[in-house]
Every structure is written in C-alpha cells, then in structure tokens.
Input
Amino acid sequence: MEFLPINYAGERVYAGFWRRFCALWVDGFIIILPLRFFLFWLEGFDKTLAIVIMIPSAALLPMYHVYFNARYGGTPGKLAVGIRVTRPDGSKIGWTEALARSAVDMGFALVMLCLQVWALTRISDADYSNASGIFEQARLLQSHRPSWVSQINIVQQVWIWSELIVLLLNKRKRALHDFIAGTIVIRKEFADIPVMPWSSDPTSDADWVNASRGYVRGESDH
Output
C-alpha cells in the first residue's frame, strides 16, 4: 500500500493532534452539542416521544461523521481547520471507508440506545410525566438502567483513550479508526495528489523531477 510521505516540500503532510482536536471541538461544541440538547429537551415532553427521539439522537454523532466524511472528505470541523480524510494515497474515501471509520462508535451508540429504550419501558407514563424537568427525568432513567451499564462505559472510555494514545505514537498520526478503515487525515493541500513509487530512494533525482511535475512519492506502511 502506497502512502503519502510524512513531509513534502518542507511541509508536514499529515494532520497533527491539535488540528484534529480543534476539528473535534468545532464539530462537538458548535454543531453536535446544540442539536443533542434540543433533542434531549424534546424527550422531556412525553415518554413515547422520548423513545422515538432517542433513535435519531443516538444515530446523530456517528452518521454525522459518516455522511460528511464520505460526501465531502471531512466533517464541517475538519473542513474549517483545513484537513481532509483520505485513502493512504491521498485520494477521496467512499462510503465503505466512512462507515468503517465510525463502526465502533456506531456499535456503542446502538448498545446505549437499546439500554435507554429498555430503561424507559420500565418507567410508568405517570412517573415520567411527574418528574420535575428534563434533568430529573434523566436521573430517573439512570436509576432504571441495568447495573452492568457502567462496564459498557468503561469499555467505551478504554476505546477513546486508546484512540488518542495510538494517534500520538505513530508518525502518520493515525487513530485506531484510521487503521480499521484504511484512511489517513492530511492537510487539505495534499489531498488528491497522485502517488508514484519511482524509486527506493526518496531523495533521488528521478523522484525530485517527478515531484516537480506534480507527483509525490509514496511510502510503504512500515
């Protein structure tokens, strides 16, 4: 598999931690969080409505990433900070890679959705309606979840921290979901540059000539 080089023309090709963190902040706090809060507010009106709302609410975050990554090569947060999700050679990803990147998050979302719906079915309509406000309803819901839900939360935390550790410790700054999907995250100016493995020496005259014609030499992933 051919990869874009680590650096090209004195510039780093791959998006580092801070760019990805800023993209996550834009997506989470400016876009996703207000939508989540709005759906959370709607859930407070009625138990049946809450069950109906929980489905799109649980799917919101993973499908947000899937759609924007597949359609535009990045979420609004990534596009705003100038980074793109691509294949290792810099070409655009498709729906398969986008789904694979979010597969684990979709799995967690599905499990938590089932637990939430199950907990709601154990609460009477009267108790849910009589709860004073959405936060009291949330505490009521929490009290009816199975005891082992904390173990699911621990597994999810292990996954999140593993993502961060792996991203920090490899030279291409790939998180676990990038390895699963076969993707990389790069600065936008290096997207869609064709990769050509001309020689084993990245500094050979032939490679520099080809680079000057608009090509970038790839590297194997080892």
